[in-house]
Amino acid sequence: MTPAPRARQSVGGLGESGILRILNRRFAAVPAAGDWPEGTVGPGDDAAVVAAPDGRFVITTDAMAQDRDFRLDWPAVHGVRFDGHGLAGGYSTGWKAAAQNLSDINAMGGEPSGLLLALTMPPTTPVAWIDGLAAGLAGAVRHLGATRCRIVGGDLGSDDRITVAVTATGDLDGRPAVLRTLPPGAHAVTADLDLVLCGRAGWAAAGLDVLETPRGRLDELLRAAEQAEQPEQPEHGVRRLAALAAAAQLRPRPVLGAGRVAAEAGALAMMDVSDGVLKDAGRLATANGLRAELDPDWVRREASVLVPLARALDLASGQRTAERWVSAGGEDYGLLAALPAGAAVPVGFRRIGRLVAESGAPAAAENVGSAGGWDHFTDR
Amino acid sequence: MTPAPRARQSVGGLGESGILRILNRRFAAVPAAGDWPEGTVGPGDDAAVVAAPDGRFVITTDAMAQDRDFRLDWPAVHGVRFDGHGLAGGYSTGWKAAAQNLSDINAMGGEPSGLLLALTMPPTTPVAWIDGLAAGLAGAVRHLGATRCRIVGGDLGSDDRITVAVTATGDLDGRPAVLRTLPPGAHAVTADLDLVLCGRAGWAAAGLDVLETPRGRLDELLRAAEQAEQPEQPEHGVRRLAALAAAAQLRPRPVLGAGRVAAEAGALAMMDVSDGVLKDAGRLATANGLRAELDPDWVRREASVLVPLARALDLASGQRTAERWVSAGGEDYGLLAALPAGAAVPVGFRRIGRLVAESGAPAAAENVGSAGGWDHFTDR
């Protein structure tokens, strides 16, 4: 039994084997970890051997860098409150690294089967942080319901700052993958496509603004807003909204069954929203020579619940800020799917716009351009 | 057709799509890239779908960090000369990232089927460098003979420094994987195991010492050593040795068929040498409750060709330095296998020692302890 890490211990003195003990203790929390089918191999060797029952597997990878994609001192999220440091920052980072990969597998219509972790970090990295990272990876697998997913291995390296690179694999169980591009012939039979979304939009972006507001200033702003609130709606209070938004940023919750549901409901194209609905719907459209139109009513409705928070944060215009969160904010990991126009909306999805022919008459709806959303190398 | 990158252009102005164009142009050099079997999906979507013909796949991952695992200004390697900068540093980094992952797949007895690249970098990263990185990844796949291997996808992110994380997948084609641990029952039938190695040991470590010697000083040292050389052996001249050693460090060449050859020759346990023969043979032994003994004659023989280089570099003792390179130097990615004592040595392997019972009488041969070799978090 590995003793729990001391609060201020750093990884420098542990060596690789000590670090692996810390990680593996947390990874054991993933239910299927100990149960490997005949002919497969778990972590600890040069490589792992993973089952792919239908003779194919889905695979994706993501890298997160310290101070860019995560911070060492991200606060803890307990229920809807957020406070505390240390283990918590690692937990949220691990959770998010797992969630964004599991979301990619989901967006192909696959079911997650494995995660690999490549971790570089300085010797001064707190042990509690990597312990939290491992707990967060395992926690996301468990709480997001990736019941078949195992932690299959990884790599450790050292660097001046922490980089977390996670790779996920998935199974299709014999179904075709649902791509960003329409299947051959789909253009001919569909004049127009409905754009549907599963999951929220804008909450993670709102949460980033909450987390980037200095703590003292945030308390001041929320207190002022609370004094102006209607006392009969405490469950929609700005303090609770702020905590929910922070949780959405720190622990995104892609709906892992949704990819399969949409595929079975006849989704023709699909992708997850990592860089914002505007940008990603634009990508889905462009991949098919189409143009995306978001329903401005949907944007307004989706934004309405966030408006009090935007106002409380003292942002120029509450309404405009909330709508920008919804249309351009990334990292909610919703699932965007295209269906034949008028098709039944799959369970858990809402219609948020449409994909139309590039040459179609300009619609009244908001056009999706290249503006808005996130590009790691140009705009923000 | 994407125009060739200008020498001093950096990635900041390209955006993700521009960076992907640069990478994909190089990845197209991998022969099988365009030829994806029915039901599989290539790069560009949320995830890739890769074939796993026998219903399982081998998977491994490695992360490399700038200034730790590679340098932006690593020199070029042309044949056995090394000079030039820019593209070349990226090429060697891409090559090495691919090679160490392909080596892990090989060490399980698998055949590489796919590579994923997760790349974080600052906007100031020279375009020529990432162009070189992509060319190096594709070059290693081609030149190391991973004929079935595709580039299946990846992820881009930004950070203050470059991190390259590569994940590889492989196929076993129905064969059992060869693990670090002996198969059940193997202890009972084998009193003693032979330790065999395919590939060189010590060359990459020698190369690191060459590359870390300032260029002017290196020229001076090599010129002095050349004046003392026998003129009838120019092909073993120290300048050529230095270039070969640098090439071994920058472009390691794991023998990708060797895993399968050893498996078919009855190898009971196997792993690749990434952290040095001493350390990795020790790990192979420890995984089986055994003790590793290296044959001191093999160490001496293997070191002998490097002695002139060690002497030229003005290192304390040429013989001792060369033997340390061979026994403790990592990154040659040789393949270490354990066979029943006296079994025929598989083609391409040499016997370098043995694995004996922990309780066995101490042998005259060099004992393998925890000293020597590379741990990212403690000794060097």
TrEMBL record, chains A, B:
Mg(2+) 1 binds at T61, D62, D155. Its EC number is 2.7.4.16. Pathway: Cofactor biosynthesis; thiamine diphosphate biosynthesis; thiamine diphosphate from thiamine phosphate: step 1/1. Mg(2+) 2 binds at D62, D104. ATP binds at G154, D155, R180, S274. Mg(2+) 3 binds at D46, D104, D272. It catalyses: thiamine phosphate + ATP = thiamine diphosphate + ADP. Mg(2+) 5 binds at D275. Residues 44-170 form the PurM-like N-terminal domain. Mg(2+) 4 binds at D46, T60, D104. It is an enzyme of class 2 (transferase). Substrate binds at D69, E331, W374. Keywords: ATP-binding, Kinase, Magnesium, Metal-binding, Nucleotide-binding, Thiamine biosynthesis, Transferase. SUPFAM superfamilies: PurM C-terminal domain-like, PurM N-terminal domain-like. Catalyzes the ATP-dependent phosphorylation of thiamine-monophosphate (TMP) to form thiamine-pyrophosphate (TPP), the active form of vitamin B1. Belongs to the thiamine-monophosphate kinase family. Reaction mechanism of ThiL seems to utilize a direct, inline transfer of the gamma-phosphate of ATP to TMP rather than a phosphorylated enzyme intermediate. This is Thiamine-monophosphate kinase. It comes from Citricoccus parietis.
